Amino acid sequence: MLEILKDRTGEIERLIEKYPSRRSAMLPLLWIVQRQEGWVSQESMKEVAEILGVTVAEVYEVVSFYTMFQQKPVGKFHLALCDTLSCAICGTHEIVAYLNEKYGIEKNKVTEDGLFSLELVECIGACANAPALLLNEDLITNLTPANIDAMIAGCRQKAGAPAATA
Amino acid sequence: MPEVAEWERVLLPDIEKNETEWLADYVRKGGYDVARKALDMEPEAIISEVKESGLRGRGGAGFPTGMKWGFLPKGAFPRYLAVNADESEPGTCKDRPLMEQRPHTLIEGIICSCLAIESEMAFIYIRGEYYNGAKILDRAVEEAYREGFLGSNIFGREGRKLDLVVHRGAGAYICGEETALLTSLEGYRGYPKLKPPFPAISGLYGKPTIINNVETIVNVPFILKNGADWFKKWVHERTTGLRLYSVSGHVKKPGVYELPPTVTLKELIHDYCGGMRNDHDLKFVIPGGSSVPWLKPDQIDVPMSHEGVAAAGSMLGSSAVMVCDHTVCPVWALANLSHFYKHESCGQCTPCREGSGWLYKIVRRIEAGDGQPGDLETLYSLAGEGTPGSGMISGKSICALGDAAAWPVGSAIKQFREEFEEHIQLGKCPYKERNISYWMAEGRFVNESFAGTPVP
To answer: CB–CB of B248 and A128 under 8 A?
Structure first.
């Protein structure tokens, strides 16, 4: 019985039809789950397994392999900051410190208001526009204190939260 | 800063504008005319034109594209084309602007390539991090279906069909490896497979499959339109055509530059990219993505072709140039890259899974001041001299990730042995300004006229 994905069966069947093999829809289905729920829970893995006709273990095996799938809840705005060489030599660690000092955003933690979480990730393919991060699924490049401030303010506004105290 | 003459650009003529060329615009400029022409060509004729052009894969290995297509077994169908848009080699960021700005050139390239290899189904495997690129491709594919350029009876030709699916990865460097890309596309963990059998014989769903990089495919319609001789206008030894160089790190104007293979690494850094940021000294360059051996400042006066960079002792790879100035501690930089490979090893085979972890731990402890006498010898015995097959990892793993983890280690020690020894002797990193960035001190340090994609 589907609960989490019950309203999306039409979309899911159209997606599966695109592939010669049903199982190929594994990553696309997990993306649907994560975009809807913000993370991939055990419950949702059961539903994906049911749709694809595989075991939950097989779904879990895939979820745990791909780093972009979150296995526990993250902030409403999840920051995946690149820490591979091209970004790292252009200020990744200064950005971590800035986010921490000014906004109380800490690595591998969700802020108390549930709005933000931060993760250091490997290369995200924005090397010539370093440093860069993914804000949920959107790429933000050429990070500076000013555009980080703008980004955070934008997120807060979107969430209807009061402006940050400096 | 020296003036750089305007140069001819074909793949990304307007990269600075960062605009997507949608179907109406593309068709107005003659888009899809080449695909129409290709429909009347014998597959063999398309393959021989591509062979004649000397086009080599732009993903890193540089394998001749036409020759790869020729490996498909005769009479075996269905066949698949998988476009490798996983672009995950650190330093490489050229396929992203190609997909975001010229999605229809890629689709036309896919149509031409599928006609050549007689495939009726293609996939674009795009890395999960490129969400914007995937959205743009999805919309462009939808446009092409609506116009009848994809689907059944393409371009109104009875019985000619081609389906195209955009498939997103979800964060795994290994999925850029061709066999891992296919297992991932089948809905499994991205585990590479032993070769042979090569994917051309047994690939996606066990069927003959060709895997080509985005930039490789985008070149195909240009070659069919203008001819192999046109493509060979830009040539250095056996490297032909214009190519996209991703330049990152401590240059004044990092970006994606489309240049002929005769351009030297020195010109690329000092002329096109405006030289070193803050007029600092160059410490070392990684010329072809993070896996390749490092070059010192006296080694950069070489053409950026496969042969030119090989003669300098490194590899052109994905033509991603990472530039580090004198404030970057080479031991710290190596620890950063070794962490990457340890993190990205798929864990399937022992030499790579264990070896990449050992490399990281030893390099990290040297950097942290806990290096032991004999550590460099241990690293050498594991990683070899930075050459293929030497050491305990390179050539001993299922795929090339093991080699990629080992090569930078052997090469970094060879280039900066004294600095590694100094770390061990002092019991600390001698770089006072280590990993300095001008980020906080000077605010926006990126040159405003960078040739990359701006903040969205």
So the answer is: yes
Q: How far apart are the C-alpha atoms of B84 and B81, rounded to whole Å?
A: 9
The residue among B206, B228, B250 that closes a domain is B228
- B160-169 pLDDT, tens per residue? 999 999 999 9
**Nearest CB to B446 within list A84, A124, A142:** A142
Contact with chain A for residue B91, Cβ under 8 A: yes
Check whether B446 has a pLDDT greater than 70: no
**Residues B189 and B281 reside in one and the same domain:** no
Of A107-111, B355-359, B384-388, give the lowest mean pLDDT range.
B384-388
**Residue B158 sits in the same domain as residue B81:** yes
Name which of A66, A91, A126 is nearest B170 (Cβ-Cβ). A66
pLDDT at B109 over 80: yes
pLDDT at B3: 53
Would you say residue B453 lies in a domain?
no
**Through-space distance between the first and last CA atoms of chain A, rounded to whole angstroms:** 48
Q: What is the pLDDT of residues B347-359, one digit of tens each?
A: 999 999 999 999 9
In the stretch 29-58 of chain B, residues with CB closer than 8 A to chain A read none
Cβ atoms of B116 and B48 within 8 Å: the answer is no
Whole-angstrom distance between the N-terminal and C-terminal Cα of chain B?
A: 29
- Strand duo B80-85 + B121-126: pairing: parallel
Domain total of chain B: 3
CB–CB of B452 and A140 under 8 A? no
**Which among B73, B37, B30, B69 has a CA at the least distance from the CA of B50?**
B69
- What's the rounded Cα separation, in Å, for the pair B207 and B78? 7
Tens digit of each residue's pLDDT (9 = 90 or more) over B399-417 = 999 999 999 999 999 999 9
Which residue from B205, B286, B340 is facing A20, i.e. has the nearest CB?
Answer: B205
Whether residue A146 and residue B336 make contact (CB cut-off 8 A), yes or no, is no
Q: Give the best residue of B138, B283, B363, B437 to mutate against chain A (max A CB count within 10 A).
A: B437
In B, minimum Cα distance to A89 occurs at B435
Helix (H, G, I), strand (E, B) or coil at B163: strand
Residue B115 has pLDDT above 60, yes or no: yes
B210-227 average pLDDT score: 98
